[in-house]
Amino acid sequence: MKNANAQEAIHSIDIDVGGTFTDLVLTLNGERIIAKCPTTPHDLSIGFLDAIEAGADKVGLSVEELLPKIDIIRYSTTVALNRLLQRQGPRIGLLTTEGHEDAILIGRGAQWTDGQRVSERRNIAVQNKPLPLIDRQMIFGVRERVDSAGAVVRPLDEEDVRRKLRMLMDRGARAIVVSLLWSFMNPVHERRVREIIREEYKEYHIGFVPVVLSSSVVSKIGEYERTMTAVLDAYLQRSMQNDIGATWDKLRDRGYRGAFLMIHNSGGSADIFKTPASRTFNGGPVAGLMGSAYFAEQLGFKNVIAGDVGGTSFDVALVVESNVRNYTFRPVIDKWMVNVTMMQTLSIGAGGGSIASLDQGRLMVGPRSAGSMPGPVCYDLGGTEPTVTDADVVLGYINPDTYYGGRMPLNKAKAEKAIREKIAEPLGVETIEAAALIKRVMDENMAGAIKREVHMRGYHPEDFVLFAFGGAGPTHMAGFRGDVPKAVVFPAAPVFCAMGASIMDVMHMYEQSRRMVFMQAMTEELVVDRELFNATVETMMEKARQELASEGLDADDAVFSLELDMLYGGQVNLKRAASPVLAIRSDEDAQAVYDAFEAEFSQAFSPLVVNKPGGVYLDNFVLKVTVPTWKPELAVQPMQAEDPSAAQLGTRDAYWPETKAWVQTPVYQWEQLMPGNLVLGPAVIEAELTTITVPPGQKFYIEEHGLGVLEAVTPPKPRKRVSASVAVAV
C-alpha cells in the first residue's frame, strides 16, 4: 500500500505476538510490508526477530541493514496473560494497613464469577474462589492510617514496618507490594515504606526486590481492585522484564537505536520503561480496534464490528458512531478485578487452532487450542487432536501446498484421519460431514459472540459493517457475520492488529479519584468546587508534561483531553463522559460539562433515568495526553471491469455446507484481483497469509481502495424493529 506523502512517513516496525503466530507490519519509505512467523513460546524474542527477518527479506535487506533505518518499534503481546495463566510469577509479599490483611482474599461478593464464561457461572456447585496469588502468610498489616480526606490519623510506625519487612523476606518474598488505605488521596506513608525497603535492601544488594506502590499504579478508589492491580504488576514484572529485556538487547546488538513502545489496553502506546504489566493485557485486540476506527473513518463507516480470528481466540470490539471510547465496566485480568481503564473488547476461545472434541456425544470446538506447538494435526508437528484449521483443509478451503506462502506444507491425510477417528466415527457420520460440523460450531460460536456484544449494548447488527481480520477471519467471515450485511477484508487482514498498532498515537493516561458534588440535589444548582477541580487537573497535567519530557517528547505537540466519571444521586451507574473543557472558569464551563455528561448518560442508559433532582457527583478524573503519530491514507485506485478471470489460478473441489455437496470451485489469487473485479460464490481466493471463502449465494468484490467486500447476492429482507410504540421496518 503506497502513500502519496511517503516522504512524511516514519519508518516503523509493528509486531503483535499471538498464541500461534507473530505478526509484523514494516513501514519503509511509505510502503507497508506484512509478514508472519510462528510464535516461539519458550522464548518470544526468537519469534520477534524471525518476524523482523522475514520483513527484511521482503525489502532485500539484512536485519542489521534494516534496523538502523527504523525510527520506532511498537510491540503488543500476550506474554503477561500467558505468564499469569501458567502461574509463573515470583513469591510476593504484601504490606497493607493493619486490620485489612484479608481484603484481597475476601474480594468482592461475587468474586468467583470474575473471568468466568457464562456456561461456567451457571454451574454454581463446582465454583470456588480463585487460588490467591499471595499466600496469607505473606500478607502483613503495618501500623498507620490515612482517612478518606487524605489526613494522617495514625502516623506510620517505621519500626513495625522494618520488622514485618524482614519477616516477609525471611519467608521468601521476591517482590513487595505496598497498598495502604486511602493512599491514593495521600501517598506519604506508601512512599516512606518504599524508602524503608530501599534502606534495608539496596539496589546493589543481591537480595534487591522490586517494590510496587498501589498509589503509583492506580490513584483511584476501590481497595480490592487497586491492590490487585498492584499485585498483578508485581507478579508479572520480572517475567515480562526478562522476555522484553531479551528482545531489547537483541535489537540493540543488531543496530537498532530508535524508540521501543508497548501497546496499552487503554488505546495508546508508551515507552517500555513507562509501561506497567497490567497495561499490556489485551493490547493486541485493542490495537485492532484502534486500527478499525481509523480506517472506518477513512471509508465513511460510522459503525464497525472488529472481528479478529487468530489461532487461539476470537476478539470482538465495536466502533459506534465513529467512537471507540467504550471502556470495560468491570475490567478483569484472568480471575481478578482490576482498576485500570481498558478498552472494551470481548474474547472467546475460538480460532484456527481451536481443538474439536466430544463431550458426552456433543461436539465442542475450543476454548482449548493447539497453539503454535504442536499446532493443528495438519502441521505435522506432533499434534493429534483435530482443529478448525484441519477442518478447513479437509473441506478444500485451504490449499495444503500454498499455506503460509508455501513455507509450511500441510498434511491433509493426517487431518482427515484425526477428524475421522476423533469426531466422525464416534458420531456415526462421514468425515466430510464432521469437518463441516466443526466449521459450523466454530462459526456459530463467533456469531453468538457478536450478537451478544452488539445486542447487549443496545445496538442492531444491521447497522454495522464487519471488518474481518486475523489469519482465519477472511476464511470464516461468511459464517460468523450473521445479520451484519457487509464484511470488509483488508490486504493486511492477517496482521491487522499489527497494522492497527502502526497508526496508534503515543498516549499516556492519568487517573485521580476525587469525590465532588457537581450539581446540588433538589435545587439543581451547579456547585462544583472550581478551584479544587482545576487544581486536580493541573496537577495531572504537570505530571504528564514531566513524563513526556523524560521520553524526549515535546508537550507542545501533545493533545490534552479530560474525561470524568460522574453519576446521579440515588443511582449506582457511573458514566464516563468527555469533558469539553480542561478547566472550569465560569458558569458556562460548568454547564457545558454537565450537558456533555447528560448527553452521554442518556445515550448509554436512557433519557428516562436522568435524575437531576438527585444531584450529580463527580467521582474520578481521567486525563489523556496524546502525541499524534504519522498515519497512512487509503489511496483511491482506478476501477477495472467486473471480470476476475485474469486472477483465476484454476479450480479445485471444495465442500460447501450450503449445498451439502462437493463443487468444482474456481480459485483466485487475491493479489491479482483489481478494483472493480466481482467474484460470485462459490469461490476460494488465496492470499499469501490467509484464504477467503465465498460461499454460494455470496459475492465478493474489490472496491476503489483495493479492499475486498463480501455481501449476499440477494440482500435479506429488512427486519422489523420493535420500538416503545410500534414495530417499524428499517
TrEMBL record:
Domain Hydantoinase/oxoprolinase N-terminal: from-to ranges: 13-200
Domain Acetophenone carboxylase-like C-terminal: 530-707
Coiled coil location: none
InterPro entries cross-referenced by the UniProt entry: ACX-like_C, Hydant_A_N, Hydantoinase_A, Oxoprolinase-like
Domain Hydantoinase A/oxoprolinase: 226-508
Protein name: Hydantoinase/oxoprolinase family protein
